[in-house]
Design a protein that fits this description.
The chain has 155 residues and is α+β, with helices and mostly antiparallel strands. 23% of the residues lie in helices and 30% in strands.
Length: 155
């Protein structure tokens, strides 16, 4: 995977829903030695999936929205708890925002399959209080190659 693209994935800020309001976090933090210091959501297993802009090709909003809704429906039919979230650039000048789904309790392999079906470069998985960037496009890198990050809570 291109180093710049990987840096972008790690620096992306995810706005995740919690009972206490939105939690902003990225995967470019320092090693967390005590996971109990993290917000509860970041210690639970979940994945972040999107159907927007397959293989980084910009699609019209209407097409992206339709793909994204199909993904949500399939996740719900699979009996997953699904919540809206978003990934975006922290740069105030940045205009990139990508709607995503926070999927609670989904296994990593199934999430990789969703990423492949919807032609995504990667999916984001949280296991053992550690975020992972998992390759789902074999043209980017070896399928299921995992880059482990560290949560960084943004204020």
């Amino acid at each position: 995977m291109d180093a710049n693209l990987l840096r972008q994935y790690l620096a992306t800020v995810y706005e995740l829903p919690t009972v206490n309001g939105p939690l902003r976090a990225s995967m470019d933090g320092d090693i967390v030695t005590d996971p109990s210091t993290l917000p509860e959501l970041l210690t639970k297993p979940f994945v972040v999936l999107t159907a927007f802009n397959p293989r980084s090709m910009l699609l019209p909003r209407k097409v992206n929205d339709a793909r994204h809704n199909v993904m949500r429906d399939l996740l719900i039919l699979g009996c997953y708890r699904v919540e809206m979230c978003v990934g975006y650039e922290e740069d105030p000048e940045g205009t990139w925002r990508e709607p995503s789904w926070l999927v609670h309790g989904m296994e990593r392999d199934e999430a990789v399959a969703f990423g492949r079906v919807f032609r995504q470069n990667v999916i984001i998985a949280c296991r053992n209080a550690r975020p992972e960037v998992v390759v789902t496009d074999p043209t980017c890198d070896e399928l299921s190659k995992t880059i482990v990050g560290n949560w960084r809570v943004r204020t």
